[in-house]
Specification:
The complex is a heterodimer of chains A (426) and B (119). Chain A has 426 residues and is α/β, with parallel strands linked by helices. Chain A contains nine helices and 27 strands. Chain A has helices at 13-24, 53-56, 62-75, 139-149, 164-175, 194-201, 261-266, 303-325, 407-411, and strands at residues 2-9, 30-33, 49-51, 60-61, 79-81, 84-89, 94-99, 103-114, 118-120, 136-138, 156-160, 179-185, 208-210, 212-218, 225-230, 243-246, 249-252, 256-258, 290-292, 338-343, 346-350, 353-354, 362-369, 373-382, 385-395, 401-406, 418-425. The mean pLDDT of chain A is 95. In chain B, the strands form three sheets. In chain B, strands 8-5-6-10-9 form a five-stranded mixed sheet, with no helix packed on it. Chain B has a three-stranded antiparallel sheet with strand order 1-2-3, covered by helices on one side. Chain B has a two-stranded antiparallel sheet with strand order 4-7. Classes of the chains: A alpha/beta (426), B alpha+beta (119). Chain A: It comes from Catenibacillus scindens.
């Protein structure tokens, strides 16, 4: 059985950044396992620009952003295997992988970084009645068809859901000559970034109907049209508001789900809110030596934050391996744990707890809010004491927020049990 | 006096920016939280521009298409002209990231370059 110090599952933006940072932290033996035929993950199909503003201070397209990390992986001569699907990971960190070239292989890892990303919520999860005609795609599938395979999925399009991929595809299909008739969004606000609403819908006069959903799909062999209707505050269609829209294609952009089958297989504890692993300040899961980062941990809005988070995961995995080599991984475990809680509009936090003695000088805690808030404050409480209050003009579920915890500050509270992040209106 | 409400696209924050114009002249820009927001708002009300991204077909490569973009931003009203200019354009593999695919797209003076390497 082959052995590596660190094995990274997934060669997308998270996996690439984790591998680079593990190598930079002094670990020679690093292996990336990727199921696709090339590195770069979902960025390869995200041909639009807007990536890397935070990381590189310039606007790159997805392939260009991925390209920079791939080049670094190549320059550093980090090992990777393509067309390789991980089938199973055991608690003692033995990975079973399958590829056409090598068949079934087992690899022993000192530490594992989970970086499998996420997948799209499918039609089956929505309970839209009707037949199963051709012409219904998830927005990401359509994106792959248009941008990588060179196929147009249809000519007259309705998009359900205003997530970023749906918005990006509204523009992309329009530029390729399709007519995008409407984007319907169930919620009273869009789940996508504002810039995408401006650049992908407003620029092309594509209507966005908030509080609307698709209630029926017409067509047996191919989609002929859809019926949309307004939904009330109870989330149910309002009678009398039905509108039939003829189209040959329905794209679904209705949410992303972290892909954690492998994590569950190892026995990693999963958060019911994020559908990703529960992690500590080192981004380590409930299983020793197994770390997680990127969209498999929680769905991000910006790839820059994925790279940042993955950098941290790679560094911590490297520290774990170094401790392992000295025979004292116990040093990595234990320690006083302060739990992190989201309350009053804060849906979740990553990480879920922090051990002050293991944290670096500062720790970025990422979270999302459950509603749109205007002129509200992000408040951090140590126990009952409010230690910071940051005013925000807008908070929206589509945009990830963060606070930075300082180690020195936490150490001033030796009996601290809980840090709470709350949204408070002025 | 004319008031224009914009959403800044300079970064994902998407600040709500208000521009006050008088006789076509910018009187004030408010609501932005950085210099980029000010620049964007001034430009957006006078001469809006965009980066255009698309794909062109590749002959004899490891992938059927390669992604491309305008090297710089172009006037917003030239978006469709640019995309039309790319229709029917095909390149022979290998294509390298940064290669010029089409010079002076739709008379904008801006080249269209590859954003991916296809061997």
């Amino acid at each position: 059985m082959k052995a590596y110090d660190i094995v990274i599952v997934g060669g997308g933006p998270a996996g690439l950044a984790a591998a680079i940072s593990a190598r930079e932290s002094g670990i020679e033996s690093v292996l990336i396992l990727e199921r696709d035929k090339e590195l770069g993950g979902i960025l390869n199909q995200c041909i639009h620009n807007g990536f890397g503003l935070h990381t590189f201070k310039e606007e790159l397209t997805g392939p260009e952003y991925a390209g920079r990390f791939i080049q670094k992986v190549l320059d550093m001569e980090i090992e990777y295997k393509l067309n390789t699907m991980v089938a199973d990971i055991s608690k003692d960190r033995v990975i079973t992988a399958i590829s056409r070239e090598e068949g079934l292989t087992r690899i022993k890892a000192g530490a594992i970084v989970l970086a499998m990303g996420c997948r799209e919520r499918p039609r089956g999860a929505l309970n839209i009645p009707g037949y199963r005609p051709a012409g219904i795609f998830s927005a990401g599938t359509a994106q792959r068809l248009v941008n990588m395979e060179g196929y147009m999925p249809g000519r007259e399009v309705v998009i359900l859901g205003s997530g970023d991929i749906g918005l990006i595809m509204a523009r992309r299909m329009t530029l390729e000559g399709a007519k995008v008739k409407v984007v319907a969004e169930l919620m009273p606000y869009s789940g996508g970034l504002k810039r995408n609403i401006v650049q992908c819908l407003d620029d092309f006069g594509i209507p966005l109907k908030l509080s609307h959903t698709v209630i029926d799909i017409d067509g047996k062999d191919r989609v002929k049209g859809v019926t949309i209707a307004q939904v009330g505050s109870d989330g149910k269609p309002v009678a009398g508001t039905e509108e039939y829209i003829s189209c040959d294609t329905l794209l679904l952009s209705v949410g992303l789900i972290p892909e954690n089958e492998l994590s569950r297989g190892i026995g990693v504890q999963i958060s019911p809110v994020t559908n990703g692993p529960v992690v500590n300040e080192s981004l380590e899961t409930s299983i020793d030596g197994v770390f997680a980062c990127g969209n498999v941990l929680h769905v991000h809005d910006l790839v820059d934050y994925v790279s940042e988070e993955a950098h941290m995961a790679g560094k911590c995995a490297a520290a774990y391996v170094q401790a392992q080599k000295l025979g004292n991984t116990e040093e990595f475990q234990g320690g006083r744990a302060v739990s992190l809680k989201g309350e009053n509009g804060v849906r979740y936090t990553v990480p879920v707890f922090v051990r002050p003695e293991h944290m670096e000088d500062t720790l970025t805690v990422r979270f999302r809010v459950g509603n749109v808030y205007k002129n509200a404050s992000v408040c951090t409480y140590f126990g009952d004491t409010c230690i910071s209050r940051r005013k925000k003009r807008v908070l929206a579920p589509g945009e990830m927020e963060n606070i930075v915890l300082k180690k020195a500050e936490i150490e001033k509270y030796p009996d601290l049990e809980t840090i709470t992040i709350r949204i408070e209106q002025e | 006096m004319e008031k224009r409400e914009l959403t800044c696209i300079g970064c994902p924050l998407g600040c709500a920016v208000t521009v006050v114009l008088e006789n076509g002249e910018i009187k004030s820009v408010t609501g932005n939280t950085c210099k980029r927001g000010d620049d964007y708002a001034r430009k957006e009300v006078t001469h809006p521009t965009r980066i255009v991204t698309s794909t062109v077909t590749v002959e004899g490569g490891s992938a059927p298409v390669v992604s491309v973009k305008t090297k710089e931003d172009i006037p917003k009203d030239k978006i469709f002209d640019c995309v039309r200019a790319l229709r029917g354009v095909s390149v022979k593999a290998p294509v390298h990231m940064g290669d010029v695919i089409l010079e002076n797209a739709a008379g904008t003076g801006v080249d269209i370059i590859a954003t991916k390497t296809v061997l």
